[in-house]
């Protein structure tokens, strides 16, 4: 199964963000990818005060990516978008997955919200405007069980262990990881999740400056269950592809059965 990570620099112009996403999906399909994964907040990454009105999970955003999946004949994981939330003050940060027929086959709402204060570096309170999701999701993509997560979720290994126990063989991480934390933590955390859960990891990130206080790390990557980085995007708006080898995953799980040997 060939997969592509699509690395974007979403900003305030929603239509332009979607145009670039569509262009990258076309490149992914042209490169033979069966599944293309976009980053967190494909629709908008700009100041809160100019954010577009959130929409429902069957609104324009969903229709746009359902149509792209159908026209290109590939599975599309549409990163995440601002979904209407439980009240007027809060949205959900939501991922949608579309089949090559354009059907919405899975929905996941980010569980762990990015509330951090790193003096002089990062000040972010996601829970002020976003409500947390409550459900873990393993989606069937091209016959493969795929565990869904979003960005800051990456720091919570218990989520991924739960996904692996539920049968996930691939873990997907659309992200807008900060430059300040990304340069030290992004690859280490992704490789750890791959190794400890003996899963492929597909991680698509936002890259570059989005607003005065936010620069994203990029370095979208695909990692195998041994922890080897199979593909990494350069610091640009682009794609990277890799082939997932499921018999190799079975061999790793059989030879080093740490998932089967767990006692807790
Ligand atoms: N959008 C996010 O969840 C950011 C997470 C991040 O940068 C981190 O260090 O964790």
Automatic annotation (TrEMBL):
Keyword Manganese carried by entry: no
Keywords linked to the UniProt accession: Hydrolase
Domain of life: Bacteria
Organism field: Paractinoplanes globisporus
Domain called CN hydrolase: residue spans: 1-246
SUPFAM superfamilies tied to this protein: Carbon-nitrogen hydrolase (SSF56317)
PANTHER family: DEAMINATED GLUTATHIONE AMIDASE, NITRILASE-RELATED
Keyword Ribosomal protein belongs to the record: no
Pfam families listed in its UniProt record: CN_hydrolase (PF00795)
Family the UniProt entry places it in: Belongs to the carbon-nitrogen hydrolase superfamily. NIT1/NIT2 family.
UniProt-listed InterPro entries: C-N_Hydrolase, C-N_Hydrolase_sf, Nit1/2_C-N_Hydrolase, UPF0012_CS
Identification of the protein by name: Carbon-nitrogen hydrolase family protein
Gene Ontology MF: a single term: hydrolase activity
């Amino acid at each position: 199964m060939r997969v592509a990570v699509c690395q974007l620099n979403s900003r305030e112009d929603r239509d332009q963000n979607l145009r670039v996403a569509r262009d990258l999906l076309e490149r992914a399909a042209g490169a033979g990818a069966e599944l293309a994964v976009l980053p967190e907040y494909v629709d908008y990454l700009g100041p809160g005060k100019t954010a577009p009105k959130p929409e429902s999970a069957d609104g324009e955003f969903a229709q746009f990516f359902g149509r792209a999946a159908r026209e290109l004949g590939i599975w599309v994981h549409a990163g995440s978008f601002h979904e209407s939330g439980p009240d007027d003050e809060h949205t959900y940060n939501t991922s949608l997955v579309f089949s090559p027929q354009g059907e919405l086959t899975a929905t996941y709402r980010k569980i762990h919200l990015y509330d951090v204060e790193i003096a002089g570096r990062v000040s972010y309170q996601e829970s002020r405007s976003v409500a947390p999701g409550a459900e873990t999701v393993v989606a069937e993509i091209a016959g493969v069980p795929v565990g869904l997560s979003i960005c800051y979720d990456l720091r919570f290994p218990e989520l991924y262990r739960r996904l692996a126990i539920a049968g996930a063989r691939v873990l997907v991480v659309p992200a807008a990881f900060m430059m300040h934390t990304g340069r030290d933590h992004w690859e280490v955390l992704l490789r750890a999740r791959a190794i400890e859960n003996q899963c492929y990891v597909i991680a698509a990130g936002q890259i570059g400056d989005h607003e005065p206080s936010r620069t994203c790390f990029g370095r979208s990557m695909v990692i195998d269950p041994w922890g080897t980085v199979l593909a990494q995007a350069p610091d640009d708006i682009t794609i990277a592809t890799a082939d997932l080898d499921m018999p190799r995953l079975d061999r790793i799980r059989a030879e080093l059965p740490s998932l089967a040997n767990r006692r807790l």
